Automatic annotation (TrEMBL):
This is Glycoside hydrolase family 97 protein. Monomer. It comes from Ilyomonas limi. SUPFAM superfamilies: (Trans)glycosidases. The lineage of its organism: Bacteria, Pseudomonadati, Bacteroidota, Chitinophagia, Chitinophagales. Keywords: Calcium, Glycosidase, Hydrolase, Signal. Residues 1-27 form the signal peptide.
């Protein structure tokens, strides 16, 4: 018996010994912080570099990973540095969003570990029940050069990732990108050193939880790309500061960097740097509803934001103003835009967009001679419709003050600016400068050719929309858009903020149909797949990109689409699987809207109405028609269906299908 007891004692000590070996960098100085519910734990210690590890339900989901900040004059975070002190604080607050993409009241509940060092550095770790974030702060008296930043993300095992790889342009370096790529799933260890993607990157281990890597509160600093290492570790990669630029000679000219500095930023020596964020989801359906990136954004800087009133609008770019059944020659002219105004008025849209071509791209005051702005402004005002304008970013920057004054005179309170295609420090500062100037003129702004919002929409609520997504316009010239891509976006790109996909194409195609890439633009998947995007995708400024002349022939469908809200009191993801399908429910006042989308796999979904309040609701249902698998524009529109809390409804989705349900409280 004595020998048996000794054996048992050693059997407990042996695994502990191996744990200590695995975490050999840990010491008595290892710090630990846990999330409010205790499901996530973060361990932090100082070795040759600052290291941290994340555990979920006591299982390591991020192996020891390095943090460092490499400055000039050998003043790195790791050089001759030790932890001086630390503190832990529990925070329970809430954020009221003036432009609620998902919900108006956002709980902000976390535990924060604040670490100070012998050198003038501080690092904060916030641990939520659905994610972890850290940021570096410096306390140097003078300005600093940041040569580089070490942000490593080491994963146990051999996980895969939904990785939007940046493809190098012929005329520029790898850091010039419009942030419009697919999200193929690939093993992390097959991503070689030198290959980069833009965040969010969604990491999918062999078993959940999934982990998304991104950032928030990006200001006066370059954005973080995610690079491969040929192993199960990913790393942050940053564009060098632009020392020299040249203007491209193109229809949509832009500034291209021709020489970069050996440093990534020159900035204030006393400041906080962007948050490095990891969103953690035990179930796929938890991802599209994660507010971590917004919560990490800096609070609003525009004061009273009641004037920020986003909504829905039309745009003519994708269909090339290819109107028909009209008594005028369609094109960039006064008559066509008056038609758009009439269409918007009839079907409930708030405004129209006048896209590229209303003026000279390089001079906003050189208006297209076929357009009479005074006539259009007066006509829109008479109809109660707003006009919005496209701008080329390089031109807007040069003519900023005078252009914004002119927009104010026309009553324009929403503009788009386009073709930035970078996120180095200089370009990031452009975003802040433009949003600030627009806010001073009470103008809302949308960025195209842009990186994801990453909390910017909290700092500048007037920045109501952002592209940075492979969206509808690619149907004009490619076959890159697929229903699988569409149902991957809510779990990847959307994690960093809403996006301007521009749904609503009314010509729809099955998988077998060869779609033209010129002339009449078609979309893969069904009509209801397009309709559901208005509910599934976050975007306070939703743009209908279909052809109004086609819409005029389907008034009931357009009345439903044109009157959909774009901001929400609450959002619930009832069921979802990355790349396969998603069902989202959104509340606006007493009403609810449910949207569902599928990849090319035909399926039935069960919609459970347990999110409803008490009482009866009247449902309007738009779903795939019985022949939608053969003719993708086929749909059924049902009205006056009675629904109450805890009811269930089975809905059939055709290949590439979708549905929308509007629930009105009786």
């Amino acid at each position: 018996m004595k020998h048996k007891k000794q054996y048992k004692k050693r059997s407990y000590l042996l695994p502990l010994f191996f744990i200590l070996i695995y975490c050999n960098a840990w010491s008595k100085d290892t710090l630990q912080v846990v999330s409010p519910s205790g499901n996530i734990a973060v361990k932090v210690w100082m070795g040759k570099q600052l290291q941290y590890q994340i555990l979920y339900d006591n299982k390591t989901i991020l192996a020891p990973s390095s943090i460092d900040f490499l400055l000039d004059k050998n003043r790195s975070l790791s050089y001759n540095n030790t932890i001086k002190s630390s503190s832990i604080k529990k925070v329970r607050e809430q954020i009221i969003s003036p432009v609620p993409e998902r919900r108006r009241v956002i709980p902000d509940v976390y535990t924060i570990l604040s670490i100070t060092f012998k050198q003038p550095y501080k690092v904060d770790f916030r641990v939520y029940d659905d994610g972890v974030a850290y940021r570096i702060s410096t306390m140097f008296k003078d300005s600093i050069y940041v040569n580089n930043e070490v942000a490593a993300f080491a994963f146990p095992g051999t996980p895969s990732a939904y990785f939007p790889q940046v493809k190098k342009r012929e005329d520029a370096d790898i850091f010039h990108t419009s942030f419009e790529e697919e999200y193929p799933l690939r093993r992390i260890d097959t991503i070689a050193d030198g290959v980069i993607g833009y965040s969010p990157i969604l990491v999918a281990p062999e078993s959940n939880p999934k982990i998304a890597i991104t950032e928030s509160d990006l200001e006066d600093y370059p954005g973080m790309f995610i690079g491969g290492t040929g192993s199960s570790t990913l790393k942050g990669v940053f564009a060098g500061y632009p020392l020299e630029e040249k203007s491209t000679d193109a229809l949509y000219s832009q500034m291209v960097v021709t020489k970069r500095a050996p440093y990534i930023a020159r900035t204030s020596g006393t400041r906080s740097f962007p948050w490095r964020a990891l969103l953690i989801a035990k179930e796929d359906k938890d991802l599209p509803n994660n507010d971590l990136v917004y919560k990490l954004g800096a609070p609003s800087r525009i004061g009273d934001a009641s004037w920020v009133q986003p909504g829905n609008l039309t745009d003519e770019w994708i269909i090339d103003i290819n109107l028909f059944n009209v008594p005028f020659r369609a094109g960039l002219n006064t008559a066509s835009y008056k038609y758009y105004i009439d269409f918007a008025k009839r079907f409930g849209f708030d405004r129209i967009m006048m896209d590229a071509g209303w003026s000279d791209n390089n001079d906003l005051f050189k208006i297209n001679p076929d357009i009479n702005m005074d006539t259009l402004v007066a006509y829109a005002k008479e109809k109660g419709i707003k006009i919005s304008m496209w701008t080329l970013s390089k031109t807007l920057d040069r003519q900023l003050d005078s252009a914004l004054d002119q927009f104010n005179k026309w009553g324009v309170n929403f503009i788009m600016t386009d073709f930035m295609d970078r996120d180095d420090q200089k370009m990031v500062n452009f975003y802040h400068r433009i949003a600030k100037a627009c806010a001073e003129h009470k103008i809302m702004i949308m960025y195209h050719g842009a990186f994801p919002p990453k909390g910017f929409n909290r700092t500048y609520p007037n920045a109501v929309a952002r592209e940075g997504v492979l969206g509808s316009e690619f149907n004009m010239w490619s076959n890159r858009i697929t229903p699988e891509h569409d149902v991957t976006l809510p779990f990847t790109r959307m994690l960093a903020g809403g996006f301007d996909y521009e749904p609503g194409l009314l010509n729809n195609a099955t998988k077998k149909v060869v779609r033209p890439i010129s002339g009449t633009v078609t979309s893969p998947g069904t009509r209801c797949h397009q309709l559901a995007m208005f509910i599934v995708y976050d975007s306070p400024m939703q743009i209908f990109s279909g052809n109004p002349s086609e819409g005029m022939r389907e008034p009931e469908f357009m009345e439903l689409l044109g009157n959909l809200p774009t901001c929400w009191d609450e959002t619930v993801i009832t069921d979802a699987k990355v790349g396969a399908y998603i069902v989202s429910a959104r509340q606006k006042g007493n009403d609810w809207f449910v949207g569902g989308m599928s990849n090319w796999t035909e399926r039935d979904v069960i919609v459970k109405f347990d999110f409803l309040g008490e009482g009866n609701y009247t449902a309007t249902i738009c779903k795939d028609g019985i022949n939608a698998d053969r003719y993708a524009a086929d749909y059924v529109l049902q009205k006056d269906v009675q629904v109450k809390k805890n009811d269930e409804m089975k809905i059939h989705l055709a290949p590439g299908g979708g549905f929308l349900i509007k629930l009105s409280k009786q």
